[in-house]
User: What shape does this take?
Amino acid sequence: MIAVSLRNVSYPPELPDDVPAWDGEERIGAPEDAAVLDEVVADTIFEGIHLFYLGVEGEEVEHRVARLDQPQRVVVDLVHP
Assistant: This one.
């Protein structure tokens, strides 16, 4: 499992009009062709911190995290053999 902690997150009512809110789905299954990822689980937003957990196959999975703009997003690349 990989834990992702996003800080300084706006609550959905405070988001700008052009930014979609997380749709509230707590568990999202991975696409069928995903080699390493099993699911993404969203935890609660508390004091501007939103936690996500990535269910992955295996105990250790190499990964890289990047923050991108336009649209603003966080990308987690998982390395698979």
